[in-house]
Structures are given as C-alpha cells and as structure tokens.
Backbone:
C-alpha cells in the first residue's frame, strides 16, 4: 500500500510513506535500518551467510562439493520484508523510481563486501528479448548502470544475451533451475570481455543458477574473473 502511495507522492518513503525522507532518497532512516543486511561470516565463494563465529576463510558445503563458475557472489540484503516489497514493485510494477534506492543498497554492498576488488567492467544479467519488450526495461541493467557510475567503471551494455526464454524460476527446485538456464546465455562483444574481470549485477540471487550460467558464458568468452553482486539474496 505504501509503495502505491509513492506513485502519487514520489518523494515519500517507500516503506512507511513519510514525506520527504531526510535521507534524500526513497527510504527514511527508520525504514533503511529495517533492511536485513547481509553480514559476515559468509561463504567466501557464494556469499551464503554462515552461523556462529568464523574467523578463517570459510567455504560452504555446497560450494565445496560443487564449486560455482563465478569467483565470488555477494548481496546487500536478505530478500524479505521491505527489500522484497521494493524489488517486486521495481520488477513487476514498473516502480522505476526505486532504482536509485536499490542502486544505493547495491553500492553499500559493494563497499562492504568488495572494497578494493579489482574489476574492469560492469555487466548485467539479461532478460529475454520479448520479456524485455513487455516490461520496457531490464531492471538489472538499470541497477548495473547506476553502480557502474558510482564505482567509475565502464558498463558493458548487453554483454550477455538470453538466447531462449527461461520463464520464471520461482517454482523450480535448485536442480531444475540449473537445467532450466543451461546454455541460455550467449556473449556479445567478446573482444571487450577477453581478459577482463567482470562485475556481474542482478537484482536477486536465489540458488545462483542464473548468475552461474552467465559466468560460464563470460568465462568461455575469455573473461578473467566474474564477481557477482545482487541487491538481495533469497
Ligand atoms: Zn520510512
Ligand atoms: Zn558457498
């Protein structure tokens, strides 16, 4: 409901509706502090939060038994509560004014988890062409463009292309997701990718099947490394 209010009063907090949040963005301090940040300890590879006190480098059992193609994945917040509401509004209800706020979460995650990371360019997970036309924009592309600006790295637009529709993954099991996205991505501009370290942006990471398949295509095209960054983690 509060997000719907935002259509009428675009400078209201997307969480509680407070007018003109002091943060200058679309969330007030109270709602910002409600976001469930992802914090260490994490799996060094996939970024899955770990429990308890871990002071050494930790790899989760899933990554140990089946290492992902990407070098690392990190996310800003857990996919719940307000973060979930905002991402759904952004993705399915054209709430594109939330792009700045979501980019801010992405940037905070970059600083928290990837500070000092050596990367050469930013790319994003693509939508299939018909889906993109329906939606009118690629939400991951907007976030990637915003982040590229903030970290002063070039954005490789359309570095990846989705060569077939994969539908929604939400009702699939982890194993089904892997099969569903297999071979779904093709690389463009491979000369620009060769030997580059790519920061791959998406809105949400759930099992990681999609970003892993993107990483596979990027690595096959000669990318030297693929680091994944998402706003949220499901
Ligand atoms: Zn608020
Ligand atoms: Zn892991």
Residues:
């Amino acid at each position: 409901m509060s997000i719907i209010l935002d259509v009428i009063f675009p400078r209201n907090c997307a969480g509680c509706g407070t007018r003109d949040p002091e943060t200058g963005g679309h969330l007030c301090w109270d709602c910002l502090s409600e976001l469930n940040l992802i914090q260490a300890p994490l799996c060094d590879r996939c970024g899955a939060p770990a429990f308890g006190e871990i002071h050494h480098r930790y790899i989760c059992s899933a990554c140990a038994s089946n290492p992902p193609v990407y070098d690392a994945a990190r996310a800003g917040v857990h996919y719940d509560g307000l973060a979930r509401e905002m991402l759904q509004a952004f993705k399915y209800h054209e709430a594109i004014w939330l792009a700045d706020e979501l980019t801010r979460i992405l940037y905070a995650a970059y600083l928290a988890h990837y500070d000092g990371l050596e990367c050469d360019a930013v790319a994003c997970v693509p939508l299939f062409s018909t889906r993109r036309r329906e939606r009118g924009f690629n939400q991951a592309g907007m976030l990637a463009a915003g982040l590229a600006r903030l970290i002063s790295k070039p954005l490789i637009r359309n570095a990846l292309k989705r060569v077939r529709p994969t539908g929604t993954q939400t009702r699939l099991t982890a194993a089904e997701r892997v099969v569903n996205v297999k071979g779904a991505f093709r690389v463009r501009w491979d000369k620009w990718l060769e030997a580059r370290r790519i920061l791959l942006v998406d809105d949400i990471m759930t099992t990681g099947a999609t970003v892993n398949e993107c990483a596979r295509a990027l690595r096959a095209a000669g990318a030297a490394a693929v680091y994944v960054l998402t706003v949220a983690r499901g």
